[in-house]
Amino acid sequence: GAARMDFLLAVEDLADALRTGAPPRLAPDFGLHVTEVVLAVHGAAARGFAPYTPATTFDRGPLAGGREAPR
Which residues contact 58 (CB under 8 A, 6 or more apart)? Predict the structure, then answer.
């Protein structure tokens, strides 16, 4: 069967973090970046599939095991 996806799970987690003072699982700048990229993909056909450079960035931080993320 098809998997269900909860599109508000990250928003709910951020709201919980704001309410409780706990750190969110994902950084807000990552959420903003993902939103920008998804909207860019969604509008790609209307832009004629022109190259797109995101205006947002996020701190990748270390990977599991302490390895550095590729740049």
Answer: 27, 29, 30, 32, 33
Cβ atoms of 13 and 26 closer than 8 Å: yes
In 3D space, the residue among 55, 39, 35 whose CA is nearest the CA of residue 47 turns out to be: 39
Prediction pTM value: 0.63
Any residues with CB less than 8 A from the CB of 17 and at least 6 apart, and which? 23, 24, 25
Nearest to 33 by CA among 8, 59, 51: 59
pLDDT at 24 over 70: yes
Written as six digits, the tokens of 20 are: 């409780």
